[in-house]
Every structure is written in C-alpha cells, then in structure tokens.
Design a protein that fits this description.
It is built from 13 helices and ten strands. An eight-stranded parallel β-barrel has the order 1-2-3-4-5-6-7-10, surrounded by eight helices. A two-stranded antiparallel sheet has the order 8-9. By secondary structure, it is α/β, with parallel strands linked by helices. It has one domain: Aldolase class I (TIM Barrel), CATH 3.20.20.70. It is globular and about 55 Å long. 53% of the residues are buried.
C-alpha cells in the first residue's frame, strides 16, 4: 500500500485541508435518525459520511462517543468506518492510545493492521509513557502503509499544565517532538512528508510555527478550528508554502459540522443533509481560501 502521507497529501490537493470529525455527542443526535442510541448514531454517522464524501478526503471518528453505548456502539463505529473507507475517505481514528509492549500490539491489531475490526488509516496516540509505547504503532504503520498521530501541543485550555512545562530549557512538547525525529523519518513517503503526524492546536499558532521548525516534514493534525474559536489563518499557522498555496496537514472541525445551526430542526433527512452539507462547504471554502487554493 502507498504511504499514508502520500495518500493524505493527495486527498488535500483534491479537497483542501478540511477533516470532518464524527463526534456523536450525547443528546445531540436528531430523532430523525433514532436519537441518542447505538442505532441512531450508526444511521447518523453513515449519513454524515454520505454528505462528507466528495467534499473532503478525511474523516476523524472520536471513539469515546461510540464506546459509551457498549458493544452496540462499537458495532456502529465499525460500520461507519467501513462505509467511509468504501466511499474513498481516509479515516483517522481518534482513540489516543498509548501503552507498553503487548498492550500496544493489541491496539495496533485493532486499528492499524489488516484486517482489523476498526481498520483505519491512522491512529492518534499519547506519548506520555515514552517512545517504547509509540514504537509498535510506527512498526505497524511501516508494514501496512498507515499513519500515527502523536499528541504534541493540544488545543484544550489545560494543555499548558504539562505540555508547556520547562524541560532543560525548552517546553515539554518541543522535547517530545525532538525525540520523535527518527520515527518521523521512518514514515516518510515519496512526497517527502511523513505519516508520523503531530497534533498541534489551532488555538496556539505560535507553538505550531515552532513545531514546524522542529519537524519540517511531519504532517499536522490541527484541532480547535470552528467551535473551539480558532479561525482559518490560525489553523494554518504551521503549514508551509508550496507554489501558491499552504500545505502540511489537515484541519479538523467536528461540532460546527456535526451540529450546525438548524440541523436539529430539520424536518427530513434530506433537509438535514442539505444543512450539514452547506456547513461543510463553508468550512472547506474558508480553509481553502486561507491556504490559497
């Protein structure tokens, strides 16, 4: 299989940098789909995938919203992921895994290896326990043409509690990225970009620019755009010019696209799709304009 980085870059060249999150928040699934039940989120998620296909190249399900419904919620996730991949979308699983040895191997078997129950194109991982917890994911990514998305500088207000702490003259998030350099190199594709992605929040544009200096070849996953308050220019702060446009990763939006104004009052699924499709179109156009596309 082609390197994940090459497939992601190709998707952004065609559709722009927007990534559509799939976050079925409790109590927010319209009754049109069956409400906040496993069956409801399955129908809702499949409809969201149908709307997103052709408008973006990447979706990102957040596994927590499915896990709260137990085995039936995970079955819904499995079906939504399969539908997204059948539609030609790249799937980034937001699961933030991170553990040692055989436990990490279990995570790679669930998400990155082929076949697996939640086969996706990339998986988010937490580096807090050290490089040995990331290595199994990188090894599986090398073998299967997948990506690994490491938390670096996140967008939540409490991220500074630890990520910005001084560690021998530099903040911890910078030391993490420095340590990841060999893994970034291992997951490089023919495009020159690496499938060892870094999460860097749109709410911290200065930090994103610093991370770009430290990891010039790593693709970025940028949360915080839209409902969390960051605009397109902030979200693209860590991207770099190539020709007449900015490249270097994807920008995620979830709540603003999952639950746009008026979607909860739609009288039919067709009307809901129209409202959600318009929200995706607007976000896509906003980011593409800021990127010079």
């Amino acid at each position: 299989m082609r390197a994940f980085a090459d497939r992601l870059i190709e998707a952004t060249e065609e559709h722009g940098p927007l990534c559509v999150g799939i976050d079925p928040h409790a109590g927010r699934i319209p009754a049109l789909f069956g409400g906040d039940t496993a069956e409801g989120i399955e129908r809702w998620g499949e409809a969201l995938v149908e709307v997103a296909a052709g408008k973006t190249g990447v979706v990102k399900p957040q596994i927590a919203f499915f896990e709260r419904h137990g085995w039936a919620g995970l079955r819904a996730l499995e079906r939504i992921v399969a539908g997204a991949r059948d539609a030609g979308l790249l799937v980034l699983m937001d699961a933030k895994r991170g553990d040692i040895g055989s436990t990490a191997e279990g995570y790679t078997a669930a998400f990155l290896k082929e076949p697996s129950p939640f086969t996706c194109d990339a998986l988010t991982v937490n580096p807090y326990m050290g490089l040995d917890t990331i290595e199994p994911h990188v090894k599986a990514a090398e073998q299967c043409g997948k990506g690994v998305v490491v938390l670096a500088r996140t967008s939540n207000p409490g991220s500074a509690d630890f990520q910005s702490r001084d560690m021998e003259g530099a903040p911890l998030f910078e030391r993490v990225v420095e340590a990841l350099s060999p893994m970034i190199e291992r997951l490089k594709g023919e495009s020159g970009w690496s499938g060892l992605m870094l999460v860097t929040g749109a709410t911290g544009p200065d930090e994103a620019r610093r991370l770009r200096e430290l990891a010039p070849d790593a693709l970025f996953l940028v949360p915080g755009y839209g409902a969390q308050g960051a605009g397109a220019k902030q979200a693209l702060a860590g991207f770099v010019p190539r020709g007449n446009r900015l490249v270097g990763g994807i920008v995620n939006a979830s709540r603003s696209l999952n639950f746009p104004d008026g979607a909860d009052k739609a009288g039919s699924i067709a009307e809901w799709k129209e409202i959600v499709g318009a929200a995706i179109d607007d976000a896509r156009a906003d980011l593409m304009a800021a990127a010079g596309l």
